[in-house]
Amino acid sequence: MESGKPFRRALVKYTPGYGRSYTPPSQETRDLVAKMKLIPIADIIKGNRIVICEDSIVRGTQLKNFTIKKLRNAGVREIHVRPACPPLMFPCRFNLSTRSAHELAARKAIRELEGSDIENVTEYTDRKTEKYKKMVEWISKDLDVTTIRYQSIDDMIKSIGLPREKLCLYCWTGESPNPKKS
Question: Would you place residue 92 in the very low, low, confident or very high pLDDT band (cuts 50, 70, 90)?
């Protein structure tokens, strides 16, 4: 509201009973939850530019197959995505929502850009590199959105308010947490 830009909910959640669409073990169930979860409000969407604030882009299932299609079908002019974290590069060691790096949207982009899976993704985790920029561009095109601007790891850490050594950053950097420092 402070910016003077209108804030309206272009999508409403069907019911709070549906959990996170990325957590079910099968793609079929994830798709069903994603499909039923959000309802577009065409009067708000048609002809407008929309910013989607996401906590993260895991596989891209929710965005690509459902949210973006619903917005496009309702006549959106532009879609800008702003995830609250950097691109996920590694599956979480403490959660079962992602079981392998292979299924992550960023890794899919890297595979497409490199022609195969690669072990060292360091150049893709540094937002200053051309490889990072090409990865984000590929994800943007794959999701059919106007722009994506990921949060930087440093800005994410700053927003959390804890020292880096007290955080698990494995999903983004591949660095294992050090329990002696926590």
Answer: confident
- The domain limits of the chain are 11-173
Burial class, 163, CB count within 10 angstroms (exposed 0-12 / middle 13-18 / buried 19+): exposed
Closest CA to 41 of 6, 9, 81, 89: 9
Instruction: Determine which of 58-62, 105-109, 155-159 has the lowest per-residue pLDDT on average.
Output: 58-62
Asked whether 117 and 102 are in contact (CB, 8 A), the reply is yes
pTM of the model: 0.84
Strands 11-13 and 49-54: unpaired
Domain spanning 11-173: which CATH class is it, in words? Answer: alpha beta
Answer yes or no: are the C-beta atoms of 87 and 56 closer than 8 Å: no
